[in-house]
């Protein structure tokens, strides 16, 4: 006998509605299905990030550490992601609503917008933080978390190749970290 819970979302009631037919009239509950699924996924992720291993007792790279790396070596970096980082793709902006609920400011008149949303959820000083990122940033983070080196990950996401010359053109790139 096993203990614990596993969330499986194998079939949704709207799975039989084709993409061309997925208008609000043909599937009026799609928004609610997306919102409830996103809220459940968020809560589970918050719990895992809060309860899982973190970096509170570890030394991490500082801006000075990163700026001391010779430009010709930047593309060779292989970053080790924090164990308390999770990436989420949602169909709604459920994270804004979840935060409003926690603060006691949520309203049925201000439900989250339905749109693809990309999140990084992490923990810093024992506080779970949710950071909305752009799709391209999300893709870069996915590659980095899959143990792909920085230069290769950037090349996979953009048409930019890191070179010492391109880094010299970027005067204060470490200030944005």
Condensed summary:
Helix content is 37%, strand content 14%. It is of the alpha+beta class. It has one domain (22-176).
How does this structure look, described?
This protein is of the alpha+beta class and 177 residues long. It has one domain. Helix content is 37%, strand content 14%. It is built from seven helices and three strands; from the N terminus they run H-H-H-E-H-E-E-H-H-H. The chain has helices spanning 30-51, 63-67, 71-74, 94-103, 135-145, 150-157, 164-169; strands at 86-92, 114-124, 127-133. It has a three-stranded antiparallel β-sheet, with helices on both faces. Helix 5 (135-145) runs antiparallel to helix 6. It is globular, with a radius of gyration of 20 Å. The protein starts with 29 loop residues before the first helix and ends in an 8-residue tail after the last helix. Mean pLDDT is 79; it is low at 1-11 and 167-177.
